[in-house]
Amino acid sequence: MSGSSEHAANAPDAPHARAGSALAGVRVIDLSRVLAGPLCTQMLADQGADVIKVEPPGGDETRTLGPPVNADGDAAYFTAVNRGKRAIGLDLSLPGGRDVLLRLLEDADILVENFIPGTMARWGLDYETDLKPRFPQLIYCAISGFGADGPLGGLPGYDAILQAMCGLMSVNGDPASGPTRIGVPIVDHLTGYTAQAGILLALYHRARTGRGQRVDATLFDTALSLLVPHAANWMHTQRAPGLLGSAHPNIAPYDRFACRDGDIFLGIVNDRQFRKFCDYIGLAPLLEDARFATNRQRLEHRDALRAALDTALARHTRDAVCRDLMRLGVPAGPVHSVPEAFEQAHSTHRGMRIDRDGYHGIGAATRLSDAPVRVRRLPPAYSQHTDEVLREAGLDDTQIAALRDQGVLPRGPSSTP
């Protein structure tokens, strides 16, 4: 840990030291808003890090992206990516606010921000010039749309815009719908995971060298990295990928099909699975047809194959055919709604839904055998922990009151100095 946080990690009464947590004793200052940054820091909090969420006078705008809202008036969207954190309100546009941030960084290991590039530098908080010399062990993670330089450097980035610009929409949808946005903000999500991975790599590097460093995560790079196998196919053939609906460009049958009472997705990736499928579904004659002998041939004749499978599957019920095929080792799953997905017994078994004291959230996807994930704090109300955090940083009540009077510590998300 950097600075005095190393001492705090060994103190049994330290507020951010949790025995058995992978990131016990790691302190994170989270300046990020909306999705990618807050998701990254929530994942760090799930693993035991003490995450201090620093919000501007207007608050994280995701608090307003509802309904639905919780009992505190915060949007469900906000609660999805901000559990486990302590929250303070701080106006970084004021010199007093920046002084408070520097005070917090004295005991921090990681800073995460997703401002438009150049914002921190304008405040005298540039990593290379201002923060690195003062806090050489600090890991500074900047999340942005395009990075700070290059032809698009410094421009704001939004998930759907990056889906469009980076080709994801061009391979999602079918000829009838045209290019279509993927229904979840997948670029933001994966950027959050990319940032988390970079931070953990930097922590490992710091453990060996004693030095922090800058972690750079951009929506642009992340969106392009998602184009597997489409980009590789194009690079090898110079043929631009097109719209295939739910089908796969390299595998057949790998698509959505209709059963008697609902849709399934069939994902057959090798000849052995195809033989098992045909025997089960009553299509054994296809195994003698040269058009379907290998995946390459099935791809070349995917329309004829599709017609045969549509007819056969229409006689079966959704859940029964998926259950039987999976037991045979043939990948198949029902196309569930969101409620159906979380109502699965396996979702409960894996702890992928959290219901606690009025909070409802998605469980953590990363599991460690010796450091289990625990939900330590519910999503915070705006500025809920300001006094607590500042007292830990060494400020007394008189100093805190003075900062509040100066407008450095906003009283609420809509308060003005």
In words, what does this structure look like?
This protein has helices spanning 5-10, 36-46, 76-80, 95-105, 119-122, 127-134, 159-165, 186-209, 219-225, 230-237, 271-281, 295-300, 302-313, 318-327, 338-343, 345-349, 386-392, 397-405; strands at 27-30, 50-55, 85-89, 110-113, 139-144, 214-218, 254-259, 262-267, 332-334, 353-356, 359-362. By secondary structure, the chain is α/β, with parallel strands linked by helices. 37% of the residues are buried. The model is unreliable at 2-18 (pLDDT under 50).
Average predicted local confidence, pLDDT: 93
Number of strands: 11
Q: Please bin the fraction of helical residues.
A: 25-40%
Q: Quick one: biggest sheet?
A: 6 strands, parallel
Strand order of the largest sheet: 3-2-1-4-5-6
Helix/strand order, N-terminal first: HEHEHEHEHHEHHEHHEEHHHHEHHEEHH
> In terms of per-residue confidence, which ranges show pLDDT below 50 for 5 or more consecutive residues?
2-18
Count helical runs: 18
Shape: elongated
